[in-house]
Design goal:
About 30% of the residues lie in helices and about 5% in strands. By secondary structure, it is mainly α. The strands form 2 sheets. It has a two-stranded antiparallel sheet. β1 and β2 form a beta hairpin. α3 packs antiparallel against α4 and α5 (about 130-140) crosses α6 (about 155-180).
């Protein structure tokens, strides 16, 4: 389909035109049905001398068993490279992506403009840039297999990705801490992170720093978590665990879900898995449910 003529529209630098192999992902007989990673729309990729890079866009060919004819099939492209784009590269690419949408899927153009603007103007975008990239990629990929509205903010998707990022940051934090204190167990006696101890001291991802209140996150040492009545974290965010009622028992969140004292405490819980009889092995500071870190080394505050 030839693009509609736009009065007054001038041509861009010919060296940065969207490659024809990329356009075919939208202009083919089936239209836009496969994910187009944004790293294929950056200035670097679209530069006219970049012929070698375009080879990864070549279609695959297969034989139709019933008719015996050769058919071309769009190659599934890896999306991982687009997760490491800089903001400038992403900005270059999203402009070309919107150009493709406006040309070949015009009825969705405004929806995608809103989607990209939400990322562009997101508070603390620079701080959370890797998370923004993953969210953008996830929404574009899901839009090809589901009927989701890209202009909406998909909170569940964001929260799921954010939990994974917090877990990864906690892993890196503990690794740096162990490296600074002397390395792994085979060289200095320290166990690798997240390996279970057999001496009753809990998980080895426990921080070597001051004990932290697993209710409010304080490390002042002036109060114990079991008696903490704070309704906010030290960062100012609302606390996940609500004030303990008389009678004891595990601390619970607003939905009545019990959190394991030991898991979020200094020593850790000896029980394996995502929960024990005392409650969930979820971080009581950020709410992460992946079990990879506790309140003691949560990096969200």
């Amino acid at each position: 389909k030839r693009p509609s003529r736009v009065p007054g529209l001038t041509a861009s630098n010919a060296g940065y035109l969207i490659p024809e192999a990329v356009r075919k992902r939208f202009s083919g007989p089936n239209g836009w049905t496969s994910h187009l990673p944004l790293h294929l729309l950056t200035d670097k990729f679209c530069y006219f001398n970049n012929q070698a890079s375009a080879k990864e866009l070549n279609d695959l060919f297969t034989m139709d068993g019933s008719s015996g004819t050769i058919m071309s099939v769009a190659k599934e492209l890896p999306f991982e490279p687009e997760l490491s784009l800089t903001f400038d590269e992403w900005f270059q690419a999203q402009g070309r992506f919107l150009e493709l949408i406006e040309t070949y899927v015009p009825e969705e153009h405004e929806l995608w403009v809103i989607h990209f603007n939400r990322i562009l103007h997101r508070p603390n975008r620079a701080k959370h840039w890797p998370l923004c990239l993953e969210y953008d990629s996830e929404i574009r990929r899901r839009s090809l297999t589901t009927g989701i509205d890209p202009s909406a903010f998909h909170l569940d998707v964001w929260n799921e990705l954010e939990s994974a990022h917090i877990g990864n940051r906690a892993i890196e934090h503990v690794r740096r801490e162990l490296k600074h204190s002397g390395g792994w167990e085979h060289s200095t006696g320290h166990r690798p992170p997240y390996e279970k101890r057999s001496d009753g001291e809990g998980s080895s991802f426990r921080s070597k720093t001051k004990s932290r209140c697993f209710v409010c996150g304080s490390t002042d040492g002036f109060h114990k978590a079991k008696s903490c009545t704070a309704d906010r974290l030290t960062s100012g965010k609302p606390a996940i665990l609500i004030t303990q009622k008389s009678g004891g028992g595990p601390r619970r969140d607003k939905n009545g879900v019990a959190y394991c004292f030991s898991f979020n405490g200094r020593s850790g819980c000896n029980a394996q898995g995502g929960e024990c009889e005392k409650g969930k092995h979820w971080c009581s500071i950020c709410g992460s449910r992946n079990g990879l870190h506790s309140a003691q080394n949560c990096v969200s505050i």
